[in-house]
Design brief:
six-stranded antiparallel sheet, 7 helices, alpha+beta
């Protein structure tokens, strides 16, 4: 499905910790840092705290898989390699040779969105930094502003059997308690229900139902995610259509097992340049978010055989 380009989308967002947040780095021998320090990386403007895109993607995928399973949608067994979307048993089920890649059509619904060992996903999560893309403000200032919200929280390991402090169990965690980090989520050759699924997870995070980072069960991890803008591009067979996913292309729908009814007729007018039609949507337009989440709900309500 990546041989040709049909549509692309981008959700730009701002993430703000509402409680303590720790995205833990690898262990360090630097005595100046706490036992558990926030992940950092060097930049031309100084060393900065950041959040890897993988730390965001993992939470989104786990939450999406839980929702899909609840509604009876196929989700592969990520724990058992033989049964996942790159595994031997999955390939045998569809008469695919072990040395060949499993086609998109036979992947589970989670892998169709997030990817597998056999196939790239439709969605990509960027790293999050203290500055917005194309931000002209001094990035060094942004880094220093964010570092002001870091502090060290003491912790202690408890023996479950005795309820006493474990010997040598004292440790320190570096936490982030404020500030802003910016990132984006991009889609390529997507269906609208897939965008709606991502937006639903964002909604759940803002309600405090989804947390991020280390020690979530002990308090940290709640964040607020503000969508700062969305852009949708479509071309080829989708150029003369309203806001649409690839399910509106009949030959693709048959070949890849895509879901039909993949457009929002209310969004007809985009900017056209003869190559792309662009829908640029500001953060104040909440209606489009509701419509996309509705597409995800419609997908969940369909019987599995109706999706194929």
């Amino acid at each position: 499905m990546f041989k040709r380009l049909y549509n692309k989308a981008k959700i730009s967002y701002k993430l703000s910790p509402e409680t303590a947040l720790l995205i833990k780095s690898q262990e360090t021998i630097d005595p100046a840092l706490p036992d558990m320090s926030f992940v950092r990386m060097p930049t031309p403007w100084g060393e900065t705290i950041y959040i890897p895109g993988s730390s965001i993607k993992g939470v989104f995928r786990a939450t999406s898989e839980a929702i899909l399973k609840t509604f009876g949608k196929e989700v592969c067994n990520s724990v058992e390699p033989r049964k996942n979307c790159g595994g031997k048993e999955k390939k045998n089920e569809h008469n695919i040779k072990e040395d060949e890649k499993l086609p998109y059509k036979f992947h589970c619904w989670a892998c169709k969105t997030y990817g597998s060992t056999e196939m790239a996903g439709r969605v990509c999560f960027s790293d999050l930094y203290p500055w917005e893309e194309n931000d002209d403000i001094k990035k060094e200032e942004r880094i220093n502003q964010l570092l002001k919200y870091t502090s060290v929280r003491p912790g202690v390991a408890i023996e479950r059997n005795t309820g006493k402090t474990r010997k040598g169990g004292l440790f320190e965690m570096e936490i982030l308690t404020g500030g802003e980090l910016f990132g984006s989520i991009t889609f390529t050759n997507y269906q609208l229900w897939q965008v709606g699924m991502i937006l639903k997870v964002i909604e759940m995070a803002n309600d405090g139902l989804v947390k991020f980072g280390y020690a979530k069960s002990r308090g940290p991890g709640r964040v607020k995610i503000d969508i700062t803008g969305m852009e949708f591009l479509q071309t080829g067979p989708l150029l003369d259509k309203p806001l649409s996913g690839t399910g509106e292309i009949e030959n693709l729908r048959k070949e890849y097992g895509l879901v039909d009814n993949d457009s929002i007729p209310d969004y007809l007018n985009g900017e056209e340049d003869g190559i792309f039609k662009k829908f640029k949507i500001g953060k104040e337009d909440k209606n489009i978010i509701d419509n996309l989440i509705k597409k995800f709900k419609e997908f969940l309500e369909k019987k599995e055989e109706e999706n194929l």
